[in-house]
Structures are given as C-alpha cells and as structure tokens.
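Field reference: sequence -> structure
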Amino acid sequence: MPRTTDTLAKEIDALGLLQEHVESARRLIRDFETRLGVVRDRLVADDLSVKNGRHFFVEVEAEGRTVRAVKDMPRLAALLGSETFLRIARVNLVDIDRHLTGEQKEQVLDVSRSETRAITLHKRV
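Structure field:
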C-alpha cells in the first residue's frame, strides 16, 4: 500500500469521522421529510392557519407557482427576429439525438468530455 503524507492522512481520517455524522444527518433529514409529509397530508386542502404541537407550531400559508411556456414558437421567432431568436433559443439535446443522424450531429454539436476521480472512503480494520 502506498505511503501517504501526514497531512493527507489526517485529512482522510477527519473525512472518515465526518462521514459517520453525515450518514446520521441523512437519516435525520429523511425522517424529517417523512414526518413533514405526514403533517402536510393531514391538513385540509384549504386550511390556512396555525397548528399547534406541545413544543412547536406550524404556520400553513398559501403558496403558488406560476408556470409559463411558449405557446407559439414561430410567432415568437417572428417577433424577436431571427438573429435574436437564434441567440436566445434553447434546444434539448435529447431532441437533437432523436431527429439527427450521427453525421449530422457531428456537424452541429461540440462534444467534450471531462474526467473526474471517484473517491470511496473505507474504514481500516
């Protein structure tokens, strides 16, 4: 087994000690999210109020979200002009994969690959 520097060895050991806390925290977060789901499911759909526990309370507030989508792409392109439209338009790469051949994709796509290293931490025995 290759020898590691003292500072790297200390960092590895510190990482190992933290890993135990991280796994415990993940379990707590899963439990919290499960219990939050139970509370959310028990609330009446239009109930906007404060609900009390013995030591904590929850405020139930209305929350909304606006979803927007382009409904007329050709009209949008005409309004923006082709130069602006081509500069800001987004295309899903999966759609390109569905509609173009491999040779056609080579003409229009720039493909690069980045490499990373996977680090797996193990406790020494």
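Note: The chain has a mean pLDDT of 89.
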